[in-house]
Design a protein that fits this description.
- The chain is mostly helical.
- Helix content is 53%, strand content 0%.
- It is globular, with a radius of gyration of 14 Å.
């Protein structure tokens, strides 16, 4: 999922969203996991580049958490 919001609420909104996801399970009752990458950029920054930054941050977090 990708969303764009005011930078002043980006971290709080992301934490809220991830915590709500943690309360849910998949149809096979396995836990639902998610990760997030946040890029806080100026309003005229190219969206595609901001998206790639956020994706890269998220993937880096995944690598660090799984020791890859």
């Amino acid at each position: 999922m990708t969303f764009v919001c005011d930078a002043r609420i980006a971290l709080d909104l992301t934490v809220f969203y991830l915590r709500e996801l943690e309360k849910r399970t998949l149809s096979d009752n396995k836990p639902l996991y998610a990760r997030a990458g946040i890029a806080i950029v100026k309003s005229h920054y190219p969206f595609a580049r901001a998206y790639e930054l956020a994706k890269d941050f998220s993937e880096e977090c995944e690598r660090k958490n799984h020791g890859a």
